[in-house]
Design goal:
307 residues; 9 strands; 7-stranded mixed β-sheet; disordered C terminus; alpha/beta; single chain
C-alpha cells in the first residue's frame, strides 16, 4: 500500500512540473488525442476568456450485438454540480466500471471519506481543490449505486507491475528529456515565465480561485500530451495495466448480457481505452457529449454548456 501511495504522490507532483515544457508527441495518443476528451470553451466576443473546462462522454457502438460502451472521462477535482450531474448520467447504464486502485469490490462511501485519514495524493488533491474552490471526486460520486462496478488493480498488483515496468525511472527519464528540450527553446522559456506571472497575478485579484482555475485549465490543456507521455509513456502500470484490468471487467459484463456500459476513468486513460475498443472490441465511435467540470465564469448560476 505504501508503495502505491508513493507512486501516486510522484505522479501527482510530476504533472504540474511538466506543464511548461516543449510539445512532444506521445506514442500512446497517435490515434486518439487527449484533447478529444478534454476541452476549454471560450467567450465568442471580447477577450476570449475561458468560460468552462469540460470532460467528454465518448460513445462506442457494436451494432452487430447492440452493445454501447461510453467512455466517461473525469478529472478528480471539480465543481460539486459536475459530480452531481455525473451521478444522474450514470443512471442510464446497466453497469458503470469505475477506477480505484483498491482491493476488489471496494466502494468509497462519500458520506465517510472526508473524515477518514488521507493518503499523500488525496491530501494534495484536496489542498488543490480548496485553493481552486473545487470539490474532490470521492466526496460526491455515489459509488454505492447498484450499477457501480469496481474495475481496477489492487494496490499490491499495481505496485508489482509498476516495479516490473520500472515506471518511476521511466517517468524521471522522460521528465529530464523534456526539461532539456525546454532549456534550449527560448519560446518555451518565455511561455513558462508568462504562466508563472499569471499564477502570481492570480493572488492579487478579487477572486483568486477563479483566476487560478482559468490559468491552470489553460496550461493543462496546452500540455496534455507531454503530461500523458511522462506519466504513461508507451506502456505503464498507471495507464496501460489499469486499463487492461478495466477491459477484463468489461468483457465479463458483456458476456453477462449487459448492453449499455460506461467506463468511468480519469481522462488521461481514455485515448488508450478508445484505441482498445476499436481494435479489440471492433467498436465504432458514434458520438460525443460534453459535461462542464470547472465553471470558469464569475456567476456560477449562469453555467453554459455547448453540445
Amino acid at each position: 500500500m505504501k508503495q502505491y501511495y508513493l507512486l501516486g504522490f510522484f505522479a501527482f507532483l510530476l504533472f504540474p512540473v511538466i506543464l511548461p515544457v516543449v510539445l512532444v508527441a506521445a506514442e500512446a495518443t497517435k490515434d486518439h488525442a487527449y484533447s478529444d476528451f478534454l476541452r476549454i470553451i471560450r467567450q465568442e466576443e471580447g477577450r476570449q476568456l475561458p468560460i468552462s473546462y469540460d470532460t467528454a462522454i465518448v460513445r462506442f457502438t457494436d451494432e452487430r450485438n447492440n452493445i454501447i460502451v461510453d467512455l466517461v472521462g473525469v478529472i478528480h477535482i471539480g465543481d460539486q454540480e459536475y459530480y452531481e450531474e455525473l451521478n444522474e448520467i450514470f443512471k442510464r447504464y446497466d453497469a458503470v466500471l469505475y477506477e480505484l486502485v483498491a482491493e476488489q469490490d471496494t466502494r468509497p462511501d462519500r458520506n465517510r471519506v472526508s473524515n477518514e485519514p488521507q493518503s499523500a495524493l488525496s491530501a494534495l488533491q484536496s489542498g488543490m481543490g480548496n485553493a481552486l474552490a473545487l470539490e474532490h471526486q470521492l466526496h460526491h460520486i455515489d459509488y454505492h449505486a447498484p450499477n457501480m462496478v469496481h474495475a481496477d488493480l489492487s494496490p499490491a498488483e499495481f505496485a508489482r507491475r509498476a516495479v516490473e515496468r520500472n515506471d518511476l525511472f521511466q517517468a524521471f527519464y522522460r521528465a529530464m528529456v523534456l526539461g532539456i528540450q525546454k532549456s534550449s527553446d527560448p519560446e518555451a522559456q518565455r511561455n513558462e515565465l508568462r504562466m508563472q506571472g499569471r499564477l502570481l497575478a492570480s493572488f492579487f485579484v478579487s477572486d483568486p480561485s477563479l483566476s487560478l482555475r482559468r490559468v491552470l485549465a489553460e496550461e493543462m490543456m496546452n500540455q496534455l500530451d507531454e503530461a500523458g507521455w511522462v506519466i504513461g509513456g508507451d506502456a505503464s502500470a498507471i495507464i496501460t495495466d489499469r486499463n487492461e484490468a478495466a477491459l477484463d471487467v468489461l468483457r465479463e459484463k458483456i458476456a453477462a448480457g449487459k448492453k449499455k456500459i460506461a467506463i468511468f476513468y480519469g481522462a488521461a486513460h481514455l485515448p488508450e481505452f478508445a484505441k482498445s475498443l476499436e481494435r479489440d472490441f471492433q467498436m465504432t465511435k458514434t458520438g460525443v457529449e460534453w459535461v462542464i467540470a470547472w465553471d470558469l465564469t464569475r456567476d456560477r448560476s449562469a453555467r453554459t454548456q455547448e453540445e
